[in-house]
Amino acid sequence: MPPVISKSAVAESTVKRSQHIKTETFNVAAVAPYQAMPVAGPVITHHKSTALPVLEPQQELTEEEREARIAELISSYTKKLAERTHHHMGYPYNLDFDFGLLEGLTKYSINNLGDPFIESNYGVHSREFEVGVLNWFARLWEIDEDEYWGYITTCGTEGNLHGILVGRENFPDGILYASAESHYSVFKAGRMYRMQAEKISTLETGEINYDELKEALVKNRGKPAVLNLNIGTTVRGAVDDLDRVLAVLTEAGYTEDQFFIHCDGALFGMMMPFLNRDAPMVTFRKPIGSVSVSGHKFVGAPVPCGVVITRFKSVMALSSDVEYLNSRDATIMGSRNGHAPIYLWYTLTRKGYEGMRRDVEKCMRNAHVLKTMLESAGIKTMLNELSNTVVFERPKEEAFVRKWQLACEGDIAHVVVMPNITVAKLEDFVSDYIQSRARVAMAAAKRVACEARAVDEDLAAHGIA
Ligand SMILES: Cc1ncc(COP(=O)(O)O)c(C=O)c1O
C-alpha cells in the first residue's frame, strides 16, 4: 500500500515545491526514470505537479539569453519525453508514430467547430480529413454513409459522454446500465445527465454479469434502457458480449424501440474488427446506437483524440441549428481540434486495413509472449482471450511501478501491449521486474534475519542462550 498522504505532508511538499521551483527555474530534470509522487488517501490530489514558471520579458535577461534558455528548456524537456516514452508500459497508448510530414501544420489554427458535415464560416478547418476518417470508421462498423452521423472527439471520454447523451435524449426517462468495471466516465455521464443508474457487478473475466443485468432489466421493465457495453475494460481488458446482452434484453421483454446501446470501444473497439477469430462483433447491423474509440490509443496520435459514430436518426434528438456558427450543434464541444483528424487520416491512409490488422496481430502475439515470460518467472498473470492487456500482481516497489508507468488498481497492475512494445522491450521490462522482486525478497529475508539476531542478542543478554 502506498503511504497515505496527510494534509500536513501536502502543505510541506507545497513549500518544498515552491523552493524547488525557484532553484530549478532553468534546470529541467536530467534524464532519470519518471518518479511521479504516489497518490493515495483522502486528500484531493491538486497542486502536486511541479511548475515551470513563465518567463517575464523584463527579468534581467537579454532577449538573446531568454531565447537560449527557452531553447535549452525545450531541448531537455524533449529528452525527458523520449526517456518516458521508452519506459512506458501501463497505458493503452500507441507511442510509435512519425508525423514528420505534418509538422508544418502547427502554423495553422485548424478548428472544426460545429458539425463535421456542415462547413462553418471559419475556413481554416480540416473537415475533408474528418469526414474521410468518419467514413472509414462507418465502413469498419458497417453502417451506410447516409445513415450515420459522428465526429472526431477530444478523447474516448467525450465519445462516452456523447453516446450516453444520445441515448438519454432519445429516452429521457431511460435508466443507465453499465458494469462496475466500466470507465469512470460512464457513471460520470449518468451523474451529469441526472440519470438513474444501475451498476452491474462483473464476472471473473471482468465482463458484465449477464444474469444480474437481466434481473435489473426485469425489475425496471417499465422504463427504457440505455446500456453502456465495454469493448475492453480499462483494467482487465474484458469485452462485454454484445450478442449475449441483446439476448438478455429480449428475454427481459425489451424491444428495439425500448433500448439504446452505446459501445465503449476506447482501445479494443479499434482492434476487435481485425481479429482472425470468433468474437461478438460490434456492428451497426445489430441494434446498437453508438460506438466510440480513442484515437490516441490503438491508432496513435500526438494529441488525445477519439471517434464517435451513431445513427443519423438518433442524433437528431440533440441537434439544433446555430446561426453564429452557420452550422449545427450536435457535438459536446464547440471548438474542435482540427489537427487530430489529419493525424488519424494520415495513419489510416498509410497503414490501411491490412497494416492495422498486422498491428493487431502483433500486439495479441506479444501479449502472449509477455504472459509466458512472466509466468516462467513465477509471476501470476491473467490475459482475457480477447485482449492485449496482461494483468499481474502489483509490483511491491513503487519506484519500479513509476519507472515503467504502470497503471495499478488495488493489488493488480497491467501492461497493455501496444504496437510500440517490442519483444526486446518486454525482455527489458521482465528482467527489471525480476530484479525488483529479488530486491524485495532479499529485503524481507534480511528483515527476518535481523529480527532473529535481535532475539538472540536479547537472550544472550539475559544469559539464556
Ligand atoms: C474502457 C475505456 N473507456 C474510456 C476511456 C477514456 O478514454 P480517454 O482516455 O481517451 O478519454 C478509457 C481510457 O483508458 C477506457 O479504458
Tell me what the structure shows:
It is a single chain. The protein has 465 residues and is α/β, with parallel strands linked by helices. It folds into two domains: 7-86, no CATH class; 104-351, Aspartate Aminotransferase, domain 2. The protein has helices at residues 7-23, 63-86, 127-140, 156-170, 184-192, 210-219, 242-251, 312-315, 339-376, 398-403, 423-461; strands at 148-153, 175-179, 197-200, 225-230, 259-264, 290-294, 306-311, 320-322, 327-329, 381-382, 389-393, 407-409, 412-416. Strands 1-7-6-5-4-2-3 form a seven-stranded mixed β-sheet, sandwiched between helices. Strands 10-11-13-12 form a four-stranded antiparallel β-sheet, with helices on one face. Helix 4 (156-170) crosses helix 5 (184-192) and helix 6 (210-219) packs parallel to helix 7 (242-251). The longest helix has 39 residues, at 423-461. It is globular and about 90 Å long. Mean pLDDT is 89; it is low at 1-32. It binds pyridoxal-5'-phosphate. Residues 92, 155-157, 160, 183, 185, 230, 232-234, 264, 266-267, 294, 304, 306 line the site of pyridoxal-5'-phosphate.
